[in-house]
Amino acid sequence: MSYSRKDNPYEAPKKYWSEAEAKVKIAAYCAYQERCQMEVRNKLHERGIYGEKAEDLIADMISEGFLNEERFAQAFVRGKYRLKKWGRNRIVQELKFKQISANCIKSGLKEINPEEYWEILLRETEKKLRMVKESDEFRKKHKTFQYLMSKGFEQDLIQSALEELI
């Protein structure tokens, strides 16, 4: 029988936090790395804090500077595009999933240097072209194109990169 992670009877239940304990723990959680409101809200829900109490704690974290969605979006964009080599589309999709506002997303995307973005796309294209073991040139290009689309790069940029390299 298979259990989902939440229903696993062998996993010890999470300890619920008191309000005072929650404020200290959430401050530490936010100080460790940039977080968005959704992540903090989910953490509070895991620990048994819901509704107005959770929203008050989030408001406290914002007023004390522990939580800032614009700062989160900028850090998220920097990390995903430099380390994970994601394209703009994938980054925007993930930020929307985390319920980040359009203004914060726009601010975060300013972290992307167009020249560096193009170089990353070229390197990823080159790497994938070397990895694809297809004798048919069309299929090789198609597989590379699909891979780069899944990483979130724009269709026109992928076409340009493929034309430049092939």
Automatic annotation (TrEMBL):
Its biological purpose is as follows: Modulates RecA activity.
Q: Which UniProt keywords apply?
A: Cytoplasm
Q: Does the keyword Ion transport apply?
A: no
Pfam entry (one): RecX_HTH3
Question: What is the protein's name according to its record?
Answer: Regulatory protein RecX
Q: Which family does it belong to?
A: Belongs to the RecX family.
**GO CC term (a single one):** cytoplasm
Q: What is its main location?
A: cytoplasm
- Write down the species: Arthrospiribacter ruber
The answer, when asked if Electron transport is one of the entry's keywords, is no
